[in-house]
Amino acid sequence: MINIPKGTKDVTPSESYKWHYVEDKVREVAEEFCLQEIRTPVFEHTELFMRGVGDTTDIVNKEMYTFNDKGGRSITLKPEGTAGVARAFIENGLGENPQPTKMYYITPVFRYERPQAGRLREHHQFGVEVYGSATAQADAEVILIARAMLHKVGIKDLSLNINSIGCPECRAEYNGALKEYFGAHIEEMCSTCRERLDKNPLRILDCKEEGCKKIADEAPVILDYLCDECRSHHEQLCKALETAGVKYTVNPHIVRGLDYYTRTVFEFISNAIGAQGTVCGGGRYDGLVKQVGGKPTPAAGFGMGIERLLMVMQNTGAEIPLPKGPDVYLAPLCEEGYGVSLGMACRLREKGFAVEREISGRSLKAQLKYASKIGARKVVFIGEDEIVKGIYTVKNMADGTSCAMTEEELTEALK
Prior knowledge:
Layout: H1 13-32, E1 36-37, E2 43-45, H2 46-52, H3 58-63, E3 65-68, E4 74-77, H4 82-91, E5 101-110, E6 122-131, H5 136-152, E7 158-164, H6 168-183, H7 191-199, H8 210-217, H9 228-243, E8 249-250, E9 262-270, E10 278-284, H10 288-291, E11 299-305, H11 306-316, E12 328-332, H12 335-350, E13 355-357, H13 364-373, E14 378-382, H14 384-389, E15 392-396, E16 402-405, H15 407-414
Parallel strand pairs: 1-5, 7-8, 12-13, 12-14
Antiparallel strand pairs: 2-4, 3-4, 5-6, 6-11, 7-9, 9-10, 10-11, 14-15, 15-16
Helix pairs in contact: 1-5, 5-9
């Protein structure tokens, strides 16, 4: 037997209705906030992620699925959604449209990392991208979209953490302070963080090693180094969230795991899934479009893992409605009944009804048992007498009662 690759998971028919529910809610929220869907390829040129995500990140250094295609080009399965959207924004001239451009996507993403609860090597993301607005109001709008999505699926016991990591100008002074601080602890840090010290000390704050995390707890905080513009932007965001009635905590240790972030970063956290409590993360990335070859364009957004979202929903008791069973099950009682049931099924389906019919040659008892298991509302018996008279015995599965109906009467009853 050939087994599924490590870090991947099948979504079987008994589980897929949960995904449909979440995806439907995503699209409802997108419509409420006037977002339009964007779909980008599942693989891109590796250079896009090197330039966009950042060559000092764990994603680029350790986690990408990269290979050479038959033409010798380096190709990478997308490890996150934003860089591909930025490339599409440039390549398709979306900046020429009225701004802001507000988009969402639902996509698989691939990271070669240790599989963990809610995070597989192939997992799926719902993401939002808002391009063309540099204001704190846009940041607030992005946060409100994420919050609305989480509430829409029944998750309400969440905390919102926000931070500002400044712009390249004020971050330069902060990086100097980090180098000085972490330089005094270099022997205590992991080998990866030692390499980061010169290349990008901000990344050390995102290290998951316990020793490095303890050292980082006492590190200088970026909020003390913000320039006037970044400080004002952060204060405006706080005011906007307060106006919207959104509770938040300023957490100076949030930096996110991607190099393209500037100014605002945020996370929604749930205590329902243990150590992996972050269910949504995002922020502002004003330099990304220029970084990957476009004109300077402000942008903000977030990504939300669907597997992790489903796990939080399960752990918090959020209800997912069970799928609706067939409107009707057609049960032939004779050989001719199979042909009649086929024609009836076609006509009823054309009218928009969900119809299941017997195709396995089961006995009447087995057919009724099967109809009950799949949740059919009604069962229509099609025997020799029924075919001759054009009147069928219809059983209501909810209360067990039966009555005689023509096909036209059955159609009205199903309505």
